């Protein structure tokens, strides 16, 4: 089965082009818009992630299929309750996955790619990691409760499709009930902000209610500054993909003792032995 995301690539590229044209004919001085080198890097990262992701997706399918085979539980695909459970469980799994990738440095080293652009547009959604290996455990419980593997993969694709449309400054806040329940461009702009008030906020995929319940929600207020707290200053896809892994390696080599080495790898981004970072 061809992944839904692969089928959607022509649509993604068309919408990126249309959004770029909208800035040409309807410019907004308060929005960052597009920059050719930045967009080229985002598209390169997206293409590379699809190539790297193919064998890993195969591994994921095998593991989930094995888990589904050994569990005695079965959730029928014909039941609407199964689809509702899948929607909620997938979205919660994404929240946990996303939060972990912001709070554990070795996982952040993979996810930081997506936050490395100083721009915020639809091409930013395509700036994806080339090291997605840590994603597998977060959705494994869905297979263990008896949800068919094809349903899990389909819902993951639906979530990613939805999140593509969050990466834009062209959409302001939406109707308040929508903003309260769903993740929106406004909420996700906050997530991409390097402003101190916006760090580690709004992890949700489709729903924003997990952030509200678990106290990681922050509404959009002050102007968002996109990028990292320490930007990398490069458009080189290889450096974008692996710069944080290299930084971890440097810190581990300089560290004194096992505790400090483990802290640099598994502590939160910015961890240091004396707390100075």
Automatic annotation (TrEMBL):
Source species, domain of life: Bacteria
GO CC annotation, single: membrane
Chain ranges passing through the membrane: 80-97, 136-154
GO biological process: lipid biosynthetic process; membrane lipid metabolic process
Keyword Transmembrane recorded: yes
Pfam family, any one: FA_hydroxylase
This protein's UniProt keywords: Lipid metabolism, Membrane, Oxidoreductase, Transmembrane, Transmembrane helix
Membrane topology per record: Multi-pass membrane protein
Domain (Fatty acid hydroxylase): residue spans on this chain: 83-216
InterPro entries for this protein: Fatty_acid_hydroxylase, Sterol_desaturase/TMEM195
Subcellular localization(s) per the UniProt record: Endomembrane system
Keyword DNA-binding: no
GO MF annotation terms: glyceryl-ether monooxygenase activity; iron ion binding
Alphabetical list of PANTHER family matching this protein: ALKYLGLYCEROL MONOOXYGENASE, STEROL DESATURASE-RELATED PROTEIN
Name of this protein: Sterol desaturase family protein
Species in which this protein is naturally found: Actinocrinis puniceicyclus
